[in-house]
Amino acid sequence: MITLYDLVFAGDARPSPFCWRAKFALAHKGLKWKEVTVGFTEKDKIAFSGQGLVPVIVDHAHADKEVHDSWDIALYLDQAYPEKPLLKSEHARAFARFVHNWTATTVQAGMFPLMVADMYARVRPQDRDYFRESRGKRLGTEDFDSFQAKARETRLVPFRQSLDTMRLQLKAAPFLSGGRAAYPDYIVAGAFLWARSVTPFALLEAGDPIAAWLDRMLGLYGFGERLKAAA
Questions:
Q1: Which of 108, 110, 118, 112 is CA-nearest to residue 200?
Q2: Can you give the pLDDT at residue 85?
Q3: How many angstroms separate the CA atoms of 149 and 155, rounded?
Q4: Low-confidence ranges of the chain (pLDDT < 70)
Q5: Sign of CA dihedral 203, 206, 207, 213
Q6: Which listed site, 34, 47, 86, 107, has its alpha carbon 20 to 30 Å from 57?
Q7: Pair 228, 12: CB distance under 8 Å
Q8: Which residues in the chain are classed under CATH 3.40.30.10?
Q9: Is-contact 191 146, C-beta < 8 A?
Q10: Is residue 57 within 8 Å of residue 46, measured between CB atoms?
């Protein structure tokens, strides 16, 4: 059994894109896990990991081995459970690392301004001060409603256009990794599940092939059934 420490919002929403990557990786391996929720102000729960970010896993089958960071978790799972590898080769790791960096700088960075106020509205009451101060410092304002409204006027179209490379990839195969989903798909899917968990705003246009790909991703391991979509 593995314990996964997972970020929680109000209503038991689980928005962390990095925790979703870990869940996809665990499901890919066919491993069982239990989840411990961690709010922004509950970093004491993961103090044993020597840092303050989720995901963190504890592998009770291997001397309670602790691993944090979604990338390191994927590498560890391949080492500890070599069947059904996530990153089969050096080339697979290189492609996944590229997708990891692209998702951080293009997908997640593009999404955040479009949904920051919706995120703030869904943070647990006890975590609201932390979110307001930390994200306000990042954005240079704590007026998230105005910031988000302006972003949707000026950044939505460029954000959608920034995903054209992904659409081209999906024209050639049903998944980013080809005929079957692999860790690069899990990375990007985590970003879209982050969005779906915190905002009802349509980041994609109707009929976007990325939406069809996301439906396929949600159907892989039944995550669509447990995902608490924002309303």
A1: 118
A2: 96
A3: 10
A4: 228-231
A5: positive
A6: 107
A7: yes
A8: 2-80
A9: no
A10: no
- The residue whose two tokens read 């304002």 is 141
pLDDT at 228: 62
- What was the pLDDT predicted at 92? 95
Where does the chain hold its CATH 1.20.1050.10 domain(s)?
Answer: 90-226
**118's tokens:** 């919706």
Q: Convert the pLDDT of each residue in 102-145 to its tens digit.
A: 999 999 999 999 999 999 999 999 999 999 999 999 999 999 99
- Peptide bond just before 55 cis, omega within 30 deg: yes
Predicted confidence at residue 114, as pLDDT, reads: 98
CB 24 within 8 A of CB 190: yes
Q: Which residues of 165-196 are buried (b: 16+ CB within 10 A; e: fewer)?
A: ebeebbeeeebbbeeebbbbbbbbbbbbbbbb
Regarding the domain delimited by 90-226, which CATH topology (the fold level of the hierarchy) does it fall under? Answer: Glutathione S-transferase Yfyf (Class Pi); Chain A, domain 2 (1.20.1050)
Dig out the tokens for 123 from the structure. Answer: 């943070």
Tokens of 63: 């001397």
Q: In what order do the strands lie in the sheet with 65-68?
A: 33-38, 2-7, 56-59, 65-68
Q: DSSP for 49-112, please give it.
A: GTSS-S-EEEEGGGTTEEEESHHHHHHHHHHH--SS-SS-SHHHHHHHHHHHHHIIIIIIHHHH
Hey, what amino acid is at 14?
R
What stretch of H or E contains 174? none
